[in-house]
Design brief:
With 285 residues, the chain is mostly helical. The protein has eight helices and no strands.
């Protein structure tokens, strides 16, 4: 579990006590470095207990389920469990309810992730020029999450994501311009647009990436030791096994807990208040 941190909205964090273990059933696993076994979508994980809790939660990493430790539903699990289906679980609910819950859960998860980004965007003073549009998008997205199971299953969530992404891109431009990330920085990497860049295994130790756009960048196993990532846009960046030891991510935005959990870091890594320091950074695997 991460350290106690400030929440943009507590409802946008997974609350397993109010969920019916949906991520442990609805989603598929593939045997790999992240999962110790294969599991098709719709089949309960063998570690899922009758009370919808994980039987090996404290030892997920040591037992080969690292993938579970870097997943977050952004509160979609409890929304689907308690709101969409009114507290009726997939084990005891009406016939065919399990299939419907598992179909709806990934849709609501995407919507809740958008709610996370929109909420954070509204907290950025530099994005004030687009706050009205962001607020409208937030309200619309919240309304969508409260639709019926049938409406959610038929929703073109990809199209909605595109609409929201236009606003998030504008937010990024405004926020990074205020931080000097306008592409004219002279430091190593500062202000550069590195959207979708292949930086797998890149040697970026001590790099100045202040105000950089790293949207969707592949930073898998990149060495970011001591790098300056202040006010960088990290939406969708793949930080699996990236080394953030002593890196400064103060003010970095659109960074999620799953991204941080997938990376490596240290007590000296400086993080935004919206995410916590993973226990495994200091406790080891």
């Amino acid at each position: 579990m991460p350290d106690q941190i400030a929440d943009p909205d507590p409802d946008l964090r997974g609350d397993c006590a109010r969920c019916f273990g949906l991520c442990c059933v609805a989603l598929p696993f593939a045997r790999s470095a992240d999962f110790a076994l294969d599991k098709p979508a719709g089949k309960p994980c063998p570690n899922l207990q009758g009370d919808h809790r994980c039987g090996i939660h404290a030892g997920l990493r040591t037992k080969g389920f690292t993938g579970c430790t870097v997943y977050d539903c952004f509160g979609a699990g409890q929304k689907v469990s308690q709101v969409t289906f009114g507290g009726q679980d997939w084990r005891t609910g009406p016939k065919d309810q399990a299939r419907r819950m598992f179909e709806v859960f990934p849709v609501v998860r995407q919507l809740h992730e958008l709610l996370w980004y929109l909420t954070e965007a509204l907290g950025l003073p530099a994005a004030r020029p687009v706050h009205p549009e962001l607020r409208q998008a937030l309200e619309k997205t919240e309304r969508l999450t409260r639709q019926t199971p049938e409406e959610l299953a038929a929703l073109d969530v990809g199209a909605h994501r595109q609409e929201v992404n236009v606003l998030l891109l504008r937010t990024s431009e405004l926020a990074r311009a205020g931080a000097g990330g306008n592409g004219r920085g002279r430091g190593k990497g500062r202000g550069r647009d590195r959207r979708g860049a292949d930086l797998i295994g890149a040697r970026l130790r001590g790099a100045d990436l202040r105000g950089a756009s790293l949207r969707g960048a592949y930073l898998i196993a990149a060495d970011l030791t001591g790098a300056d990532l202040r006010d960088a846009d990290l939406i969708g960046a793949d930080l699996r096994d990236a080394d953030l030891t002593d890196a400064d991510l103060t003010g970095a935005f659109f960074l999620t807990q799953p991204q941080v959990n997938a990376a490596r870091g240290s007590a000296g890594t400086r993080l935004p208040v919206s995410v916590g320091r993973p226990v495994h950074w200091t406790a080891g695997d």
